[in-house]
């Protein structure tokens, strides 16, 4: 699905089906979580990460300089891609989609996200809020569009240089800016931060686990520090730092494209409901990286409808619901770089949809 039809608007009218109707179309086994399948994906990624690290640490330094200039970027891209897929498994743990046991999911997710320098429980709780309020202008947790009245975005940044600046800043710094300063996130009173237990993002019952997340991050940073002391700045940066940066870039690209599109509506409180929000997501094609990312980019719509479905059943579940979803399902196979530029350039702000009687509907400009 490319070209003109990709930009056709997704219906904003109330769907003729409910979540229960959609669930009935999915084979029951798709909801079953298998420890064998889940740990197979976990150890597959972990082994590939180690193999890439071993090859880079022991063999790239032996290459002559012209070849090493090519080998290091290839390693950074490959390792960053695998780390992104590994991160996706941690995200799946946060949705209780890894196993039938919550403690296993939290233990595995805590390990994965800590290694990827993401606070597991903190992200789990804010991400839960995102799933509960997807595409609500007031209450969604991330990628909340600006209003037309915000002239800094609608006028000052609504041009070629502004688009380039926005795209570069979002992709390179998006994840740390979100975790540390809640940039691109919901407006909370006071300073919102994924590392502070007292942040408005969390309620009183969640604060202790936010501290546990912080301990996990500090433990990994401590390991990195010892590696730096023994191996130096260059080895630490080349073997760990840059691959984690590439993972961060892929994280932003993946999540941004799954939630941003010129054809998708956002809703204010007068029109929003959970199913409308869940259907306001987009499946994307990342080519060779689809499998590396455990198809998260291709199955985001079904993920928002049924987040406990594990990744190895998600495509089958998606195909089962697509006939009922009809025009309410959105898929875009526009090449990733082209899609990032197009959506950054076109999705600047939202305003009321003048083509509907219900002025509460908000659409991207």
Automatic annotation (TrEMBL):
Transmembrane portions of the chain: 42-63, 69-89, 210-229, 235-257
Location(s), subcellular: Membrane
Principal location: membrane
UniProt keywords, alphabetically: Membrane, Oxidoreductase, Transmembrane, Transmembrane helix
Gene Ontology BP term (one): lipid metabolic process
A GO cellular component entry from the record: membrane
GO molecular function: oxidoreductase activity
Domain Fatty acid desaturase: 72-330
InterPro entries in alphabetical order: FA_desaturase_dom, Fatty_acid_desaturase
Coiled coil: none
Family statement: Belongs to the fatty acid desaturase type 1 family.
PANTHER family noted in UniProt: OMEGA-6 FATTY ACID DESATURASE, CHLOROPLASTIC
The protein's name in its UniProt record: Fatty acid desaturase domain-containing protein
């Amino acid at each position: 699905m490319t070209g003109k039809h990709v930009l056709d608007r997704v219906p904003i009218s109330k769907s003729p089906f409910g979540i229960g109707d959609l669930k009935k179309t999915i084979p029951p086994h798709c909801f079953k979580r298998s420890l064998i399948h889940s740990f197979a994906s976990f150890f597959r990624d972990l082994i590939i990460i180690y193999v890439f690290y071993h090859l880079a640490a022991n063999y790239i330094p032996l290459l002559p300089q012209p070849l090493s200039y090519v080998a290091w970027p290839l390693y950074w891209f490959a390792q960053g891609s695998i780390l992104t897929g590994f991160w996706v498994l941690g995200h799946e743990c946060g949705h209780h989609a890894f196993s039938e046991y919550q403690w296993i999911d939290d233990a595995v997710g805590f390990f994965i996200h800590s290694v990827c320098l993401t606070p597991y429980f903190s992200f789990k709780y804010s991400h839960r809020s995102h799933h509960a309020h997807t595409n609500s202008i007031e209450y969604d947790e991330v990628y909340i569009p600006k209003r037309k009245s915000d002239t800094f975005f609608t006028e000052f940044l609504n041009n070629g240089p502004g688009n380039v600046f926005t795209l570069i800043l979002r992709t390179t710094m998006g994840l740390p800016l979100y975790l540390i300063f809640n940039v691109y996130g919901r407006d909370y009173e006071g300073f919102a931060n994924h590392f502070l237990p007292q942040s408005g993002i969390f309620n009183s019952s969640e604060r202790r686990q936010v501290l546990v997340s912080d301990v996990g991050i500090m433990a990994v940073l401590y390991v990195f520090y010892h590696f730096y002391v023994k191996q130096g700045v260059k080895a630490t940066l080349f073997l760990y730092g840059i691959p984690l940066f590439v993972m961060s870039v892929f994280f932003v690209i993946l999540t941004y494209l799954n939630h941003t599109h010129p054809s998708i509506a956002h809703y204010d409180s007068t029109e929003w409901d959970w199913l409308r929000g869940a259907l306001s997501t987009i499946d994307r094609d990342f080519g060779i990286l689809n499998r590396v990312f455990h198809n998260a980019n291709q199955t985001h719509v079904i993920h928002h409808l049924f987040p406990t479905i594990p990744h190895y059943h998600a495509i089958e579940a998606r195909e089962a619901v697509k006939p009922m979803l009809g025009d309410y399902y959105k898929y875009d196979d526009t090449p990733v770089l082209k899609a990032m530029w197009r959506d950054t350039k076109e999705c600047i702000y939202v305003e009321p949809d003048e083509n509907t009687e219900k002025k509460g509907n908000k659409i991207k400009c």
